[in-house]
């Protein structure tokens, strides 16, 4: 084939959905080791992805070790033992459970199943960016409803954005990146007002951290009341298994059967299934995780405020910091130069904020020291 013909062929890729052309791929950071090498640093503290600073449950690690002799086999496509463990711990029928390669995959599966070109989804903004990605990947239009003045979901405005084209509504509770949450009464009111053609998806990725707050809704109880609802949870956060990619959703059985038609048969790998099943019953590890988060969240918030910044009250394992006018992108870069990785918020439309995950005490101290130094460099006004 002539060179000019080869060249002409190069430009013929066209996504099936036009919206994919406007989609910005999810931004992931560099590997920690690479960053350390590039910056010439010997310590890097990563507080960027809301992971569990304690790592994973010892029971989960033992389960992983036991799986190593079985790696030659495909996983159980039905997720028998993991569904059994989830079903027992939440008292829900196994037939109502879908397992996912992270709860992220379940968002994708729902979008794949329910969205066609020009359909609409409704979600708050800023919220978890994958609602936008999954919507656009399937040709649909995301109606992004700004959070209210307290950076909480504006449920009345979201209800007002529903049209006959709306197929899915995503509610991140608590919300990422703000840590704010909608209360039981508000949520029930909102759900009760939705037309039956709209499927609400309650994303409870941070449920375990938030569940003890007064008025925090339990999606599983709402589902058990017979509501048309999807409740998503994950093993990536409080259960400390982010690297294995495993999450789940609970939903009406009829919907499970439809999702199973578009789900890859072996979407959750065998090691992840075994680890997650063991993690469900490791109550000690979960309690330790929650206790660490409680005490360190309180300490971090107080220290951040004493530096002259504001914090958004968080029910999760991260804090959104209002930098009081300092540019978030520059603070993010400055922290990275000192070996601390947090999350810049420009892509979320919050250029004067950063989000930091609650880490181990020494990691949080390292972050606080770096933040104080940067503030001094920027403002010349240490506290
Ligand atoms: C609100 C929210 N939902 C879902 C997820 C996806 O989690 P995973 O795919 O690891 O289960 C995250 C991860 O950060 C999140 O913050």
Structural overview:
With 383 residues, the protein is of the alpha/beta class. The chain has 2 domains: 17-46 and 284-379, Aspartate Aminotransferase, domain 1 (Alpha-Beta Complex); 58-281, Type I PLP-dependent aspartate aminotransferase-like (Major domain) (Aspartate Aminotransferase, domain 2). Helix content is 40%, strand content 14%. The protein has 15 helices and 13 strands. It has helices at residues 3-9, 32-39, 58-67, 80-90, 103-114, 130-137, 155-160, 184-192, 207-210, 219-224, 253-262, 270-280, 283-306, 328-337, 361-379, and strands spanning 45-46, 97-100, 120-125, 141-146, 166-172, 199-203, 230-234, 247-250, 310-311, 318-322, 340-341, 343-344, 353-357. The strands form 3 sheets. It has a 7-stranded mixed sheet with strand order 2-8-7-6-5-3-4, with helices on both faces. The protein has a 4-stranded antiparallel sheet with strand order 9-10-13-12. Strands 1-11 form a two-stranded parallel ribbon. α3 runs antiparallel to α12, α4 (80-90) runs parallel beside α12 and α5 runs parallel beside α6. It is globular and about 60 Å long. The termini are far apart. The structure holds pyridoxal-5'-phosphate (PLP). Residues 50, 102-104, 128, 172, 176, 203, 205, 234, 236, 242, 247 line the site of pyridoxal-5'-phosphate.
């Amino acid at each position: 084939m002539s060179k000019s013909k080869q060249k002409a062929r190069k430009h013929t890729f066209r996504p099936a959905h036009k919206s994919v052309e406007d989609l910005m791929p999810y931004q992931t950071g560099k590997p920690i080791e690479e960053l350390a090498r590039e910056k010439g640093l010997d310590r890097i503290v990563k507080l960027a992805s809301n992971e569990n600073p304690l790592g994973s449950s010892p029971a989960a690690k033992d389960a992983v070790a036991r799986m190593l002799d079985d790696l030659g086999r495909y996983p159980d496509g039905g997720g028998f033992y993991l569904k059994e463990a989830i079903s027992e711990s939440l008292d829900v029928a196994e037939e109502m459970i879908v397992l996912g390669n992270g709860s992220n995959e379940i968002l994708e599966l729902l979008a794949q199943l329910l969205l066609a070109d020009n359909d609409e989804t409704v979600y708050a903004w800023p919220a978890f960016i994958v609602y936008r990605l999954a919507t656009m990947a399937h040709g649909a239009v995301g109606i992004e409803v700004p959070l209210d003045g307290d950076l909480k979901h504006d449920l009345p405005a979201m209800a007002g954005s529903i049209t006959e084209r709306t197929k899915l509504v995503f509610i991140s509770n608590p919300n990422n990146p703000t840590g704010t949450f909608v209360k039981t009464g508000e949520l029930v009111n909102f759900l009760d007002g939705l037309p039956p053609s709209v499927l609400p998806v309650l994303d409870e990725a941070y449920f375990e951290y938030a569940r003890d707050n007064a008025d925090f809704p339990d999606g599983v109880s709402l589902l058990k009341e017979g509501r048309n609802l999807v409740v998503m949870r994950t093993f990536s956060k409080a259960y400390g298994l982010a690297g294995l990619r495993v999450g789940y959703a609970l939903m009406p059985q009829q919907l499970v059967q439809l999702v199973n038609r578009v789900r890859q048969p072996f979407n959750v790998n065998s090691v992840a299934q075994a680890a997650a099943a063991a993690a469900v019953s490791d109550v000690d590890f979960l309690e330790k995780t929650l206790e660490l988060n409680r005490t360190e969240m309180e300490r971090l918030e107080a220290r951040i405020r004493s530096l002259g910044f504001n914090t958004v009250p968080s029910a999760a394992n991260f804090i959104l910091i209002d930098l009081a006018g300092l540019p978030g992108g520059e603070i993010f870069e400055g922290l990275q130069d000192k070996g601390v990785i947090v999350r810049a918020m420009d892509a979320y439309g919050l250029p004067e904020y950063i989000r930091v995950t609650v880490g181990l005490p020494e990691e949080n101290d390292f972050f606080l020291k770096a933040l104080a130094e940067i503030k001094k460099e920027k403002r010349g006004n240490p506290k």
